Amino acid sequence: MGEGLPRLVRGIAQVGLDAMNLDYIVIDRTSTVPLYEQLRVCISDAIRRGVLKASMQLPTENEIIESCGVSRQVVRQAYGALVQNGQVIRERGRGTFVKAENYGVFMNKLMSYQEELALSGKVPKTEVLAACRRSTPEELSGPSDLGDSECFYLERLRSADGKASVHIQTYLPYSRFPGIERFDFAALSLYHTLAKEYGVHLRDAKRSLSAENASDREAGLLGVETGKALLLLESHTFDRNGGLVEVSFEHFAGDTCHYEFEVAAGR
């Protein structure tokens, strides 16, 4: 470990795996975030940024243990969460790999847009159109919604391989996330920031899907004709204690995405 960093453990270069190094893994032992969650976020972020590309093999348990000074249980918990989130797959006798299939937009998994696109091998880009503290819209101020007179409003335009694909408007109760406007969400994941900076971990979301005709502004942002049918995905996302974390509205052009559902048989 480097001198001057007694509490910060960084991954070091290793041979094999196409000379992959573990510089993308940073474990902060002073943080209240569990070690396995820090490891999961680091790997997830590396997938999102394209450091770990589709079909690439992840380091073995022993390589992470040796390089990062964590226990085998920590590595297994992190890898298990990545498998459950659909970002990686385990192949018996071969190892763990970044999932190469295109899973479109998950309706039943809480993942960042960058993570979803990374699974398909596409290059994501986010443009922040607004990020500010403002009065909560009346229709979202009730106790069953944000329940706060002020909110953090985040408006983003996302692209895949240079083509605009989704316009998203997000509202979070400002009292829960003071100072959140200081973060650059053109580069950072909102969900990762909530976990790392505020200790808020997501549990589930209620989502509804409907159709809506493109307004002049939506058409201009998404590069479609005014009046074209768009998909509107509305989400209410909750933390592990059942508290509402965000309300979001995402507009997609139908020819830029697909949705995948997992449906269990009745018993």
UniProtKB/TrEMBL annotation:
It comes from the Bacteria. It comes from Thermophilibacter immobilis. Residues 33-101 form the HTH gntR-type domain. InterPro entries: Bact_HTH_transcr_reg, Chorismate_lyase_/UTRA_dom_sf, Tscrpt_reg_HTH_GntR, UTRA, WH-like_DNA-bd_sf, WH_DNA-bd_sf. Keywords: DNA-binding, Transcription, Transcription regulation. Coiled coil: none annotated. CDD domains: WHTH_GntR (cd07377). GO terms for molecular function: DNA binding; DNA-binding transcription factor activity. The keyword Transcription applies. GO terms for biological process: negative regulation of DNA-templated transcription. PANTHER family: MANNOSYL-D-GLYCERATE TRANSPORT/METABOLISM SYSTEM REPRESSOR MNGR-RELATED (PTHR44846), MANNOSYL-D-GLYCERATE TRANSPORT_METABOLISM SYSTEM REPRESSOR MNGR-RELATED (PTHR44846:SF1). This is GntR family transcriptional regulator.
